[in-house]
Give the backbone structure.
Amino acid sequence: MNEQDRLMFEKYDQFINNLKQKFQFVKCPRYNISVGEGWWNIVENLCQQISELSPPEQFQVSQIKEKFGGLRFYWNGYSELKEDLKAQITSLIRKAESEAYKTCQDCGNPGVICRKPSGWIFVACENHQKEENAENAEDIFLFKDTK
Ligand SMILES: [Zn+2]
């Protein structure tokens, strides 16, 4: 592991430790949390907003990851939560997902959905889009704001 990788690894470790410490409902193993640094604020804000709703202990986050350029935030306890709380949590997650679609995964600057030459879909700012030699792929994600 080179120095840059080591620093990144340490930083990531800190992010996860902090998240798990601050929010008891983030109980999943660390390997179930996998999001780029540009989205860390979104994830932390989302957890903060959920914690302000004081969910019961049945609410447990099982996975936080990126898939096809989108933020995925999975949780358990769905059948045990009251309807209004479920609706509130779901709406907060939807808001975070929409924000992630407009936020560079690498640096957190405003971004758009892009496609790498390999076909990989991700969200990038102008700089990171260039760096990855990626093309704009907003067209394939037109449905993203409708769900
Ligand atoms: Zn960027």
